[in-house]
Amino acid sequence: MSSVLCLERDMENTKVEPNGVQNGSHHDREKEIKEFDETNDGVRGLVTAGVQRIPSFFVETEDVIATIAPSRENSTQFQIPVIDMKGVHEDAGRRKAVVEEIEHASATWGFFQVVNHGVPKPVLEEMIDRVREFHEQSPEVKAEYYTRDKISKVIYNSNIDLYSRKVANWRDSLYIFMPRDGSAKPEEYPPVCREITIKYSEHMRVLGNTLLELLAEALGLKPKHLIDMDCGEGQSVVDHIGGLQVSHQGQWINVTPIPEALVINIGDLTQLISNDKFKSVDHRILANSVGPRISVACNFTSHYSPTDRPYGPIKELLSDENPPMYKEVTVTEYFAHYYSDVLGSSYGLDFFKLRA
Q: Transmembrane stretches, by residue range (predicted)?
């Protein structure tokens, strides 16, 4: 299993001129994206330059924008579950209760927050601070890491799928791939966040393994089942300012940040191997008008390579009443489809569903 740290900065809103966004031809769009990408300075560069017109490829359609305002206020019945992990290793009764909470949250929401997860507050705070410092460095310093080579160990850019997305996200990201096979080279990581990234990833690896055990138990499997498969995606997000929304029962629900809590996202491949028992749900980030939003995500997945093992619905979960919903797929094949999905023509797991 390898870890991928995605260190993101969603930029603050910027003032734009009325009617500043225009829909041009496909050629104009490609030209605009290329010019933006070749600055090697991402969204941060636009904000720093005091941009007066947001490039059109960042702008959502009017029907999508219309869904945002009504979703800002939630009723109290629509809040993603918060799970207290205290005692999961020491108290069998408490562990059973946590597993039941995780099972419910994973099957109905696809997201939940965890508290008392064991990651020290100073580590969380320093990780956020160092991410902020990285993105606030000069363009010349950051340009060393700006690339669209998906196999690089360190990738800094704006939208890893910038050229294929229908609408780009208003954010810049730093991806740090941290293999567990000893091949990691810390000297390749940006100096400003090198030490804390390593420390943070160590804590997240422990938490990730615990979550994989609890998810396995929630599926009725032995605790080490998912770990032994060398698979499972658990994405933990440190949400610093807010703006995260998840889709639930036809509504966009705000995820209210809780101090020191981590947000867990089930992810597509967990839905696939659980044969739809656990859900991967749509989510989005709203840009803040009060300042940048900074998050740090840690993804757990198998190695990306042409020789990846295939993953399908776990056989122990299948029966005549619960036949497989998906064909087997490698992680590499999944992401190859995900990132080649030109302008969002199809999405995620639907491509891998078995047809009657």
A: none
Q: How many domains does the chain have?
A: 1
Q: What is the pLDDT of residues 133-155, one digit of tens each?
A: 999 999 999 999 999 998 788 99
Task: Look at the alpha carbons of 161, 163, 168, 171 in this order and tell me if their dihedral is positive or negative.
Answer: positive
Question: What tokens does 321 get?
Answer: 């009443």
Q: How many CA atoms lie within 13 A of 115 on its CB side?
A: 8
If residue 111 lies in a helix (H) or strand (E), which one and from where to where? strand 111-115
Strand 244-248 relative to strand 251-254, pairing: antiparallel
Determine the structural domain holding residue 16 and report its residue range: 2-352
- Phi then psi for 24, rounded to 5 degrees? -105, -170
- CA distances for 36 relative to 12, 210, 271, 274, 280, angstroms: 18, 41, 35, 40, 32
Rg (CA), the chain: 20
Sheet holding 154-157, edge to edge: 82-84, 111-115, 262-265, 235-239, 293-301, 2-10, 171-178, 154-157
CA angle 31, 37, 41 (to 5 degrees): 145
Q: What is the CATH number of the domain that holds 257?
A: 2.60.120.330
Q: How far apart are CA 269 and CA 104, in angstroms?
A: 18
312's tokens: 């399908």
The reported pTM is: 0.86
Nearest-angstrom CA–CA distance, 108 and 278: 8
Does pLDDT of 21 surpass 60?
Answer: no
CA distance 249 to 66: 18
Residue 103, both tokens: 């099972």
